[in-house]
């Protein structure tokens, strides 16, 4: 149970792919013009991470060390292709919104990093959980970024009117590329400040206990 909590905390907070590791910046900045786009991309990455981690963990003893990276990319590309076809078939609007960024998940640093750092060294169940929790951290970050940009830039959240009814004038800058950089920078700064404050309190508590 403690291991599960540690993995969950690592994926969502301590090793968050966006706010801490700064991985996958390209889709993060490009697709988060709305909350629904960020959430949709996040769910897609969760599926890819969980399935690719599962397959790589399952095959880890059969993949030669010399060609492991190339093998991981082949596995990941197969998973991404299958998921992309499912999205095209059942979620055409999401496919239209995310466009090229779905196939580009193949070269997303987060997927390859988890394959190399975790799935290739751990059992199937732990690898699937790692994929789910890391994907959850990615999804939360993208959805939060999308909510803020959509709210300020359009006055809506998930397409629902939140501020427009009160006469709010959208600031279109926030749904443009520069707005993505600024919003992400502010969020990273806020998360880092909160983490530093939390770590400081933990160290202070440990110091008091030692006394």
Summarize the structure.
This protein is mainly α and 211 residues long. The protein is 72% helix and 2% strand.
Strand order of the largest sheet: 1-2
Estimated radius of gyration? 19 Å
Compressed to H and E, one letter per element, the order equals HHHHHHHEEH
What profile does the largest beta sheet have? 2 strands, antiparallel
Termini separation (Å)? Answer: 30 Å
Count of individual beta strands:
2
Shape: flat
How much helicity do the residues have? Answer: over 70%
Give me the oligomer status. Answer: single chain
SS content category: mainly alpha
User: Which spans have pLDDT < 50 for at least 5 consecutive residues?
Assistant: none
What's the total helix number?
8
Mean pLDDT: 90
- Please report which band the strand proportion falls in: under 5%, 5-15%, 15-25%, 25-35%, 35-45% or over 45%: under 5%
Can you describe what's shown?
The protein is mainly alpha-helical and 211 residues long. It has a domain at 2-148. Helix content is 72%, strand content 2%. The chain has helices at 2-14, 25-31, 35-59, 68-90, 92-98, 109-119, 124-154, 177-210; strands at 156-157, 160-161. A two-stranded antiparallel sheet has the order 1-2. The longest helix has 34 residues, at 177-210. The protein is flat, with a radius of gyration of 19 Å. 34% of the residues are buried. The mean pLDDT is 90.
């Amino acid at each position: 149970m403690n291991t599960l909590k540690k993995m969950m905390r690592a994926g969502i907070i301590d090793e968050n792919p966006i706010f801490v590791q700064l991985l996958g910046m390209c889709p993060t900045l490009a697709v988060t013009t709305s909350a629904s786009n960020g959430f949709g991309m996040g769910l897609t990455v969760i599926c890819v991470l969980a399935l690719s981690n599962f397959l790589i963990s399952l095959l880890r003893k059969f993949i030669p060390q010399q060609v492991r990276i190339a093998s991981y990319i082949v596995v990941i590309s197969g998973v991404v292709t299958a998921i992309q076809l499912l999205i095209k078939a059942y979620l055409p609007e999401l496919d239209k919104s995310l466009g090229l960024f779905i196939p580009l998940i193949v070269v997303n640093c987060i997927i390859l990093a988890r394959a190399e750092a975790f799935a290739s060294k751990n059992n199937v169940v732990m690898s699937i959980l790692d994929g789910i929790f890391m994907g959850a951290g990615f999804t939360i970050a993208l959805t939060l970024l999308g909510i803020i940009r959509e709210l300020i830039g359009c006055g809506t959240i998930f397409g629902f009117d939140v501020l427009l009814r009160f006469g709010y004038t959208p600031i279109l800058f926030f749904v443009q590329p520069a707005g993505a950089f600024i919003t992400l920078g502010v969020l990273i700064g806020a998360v880092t400040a909160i983490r530093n404050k939390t770590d400081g309190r933990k160290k202070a508590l440990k110091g008091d206990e030692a006394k």
